[in-house]
Amino acid sequence: MEKIIKYELLGTGQNIPVSIVYEQESTLEVKSVFLITKELLDQEKISVRKMVRYLKGDLNKSDKDYLLCQEIYFYNGPIEKKQKTNFKKSLQNVSRIISASEEWTRS
What we know:
By secondary structure, the chain is an alpha+beta fold. Helix content is 24%, strand content 34%.
């Protein structure tokens, strides 16, 4: 008779009997959306054109407004995040297997 292991469901405190647990790796892309208001640009005396040049990486570091643009960029938080998993079902992506008789990790 095969041994059963108990697996705790994440965040529930519930244990369920299973024969095998395996992990599969995938990549996750996160697309974040940011806003910069006209009021903020006016307050900092930065033109839309100059901020766009900064965001494209085209604004020279010696430009007098470079540090202000950098400050806006670093302190601006996203208003939304969209996640997309690049999940491809493949045995090559299985990274860890746990059963009652063994534990295996892909190296």
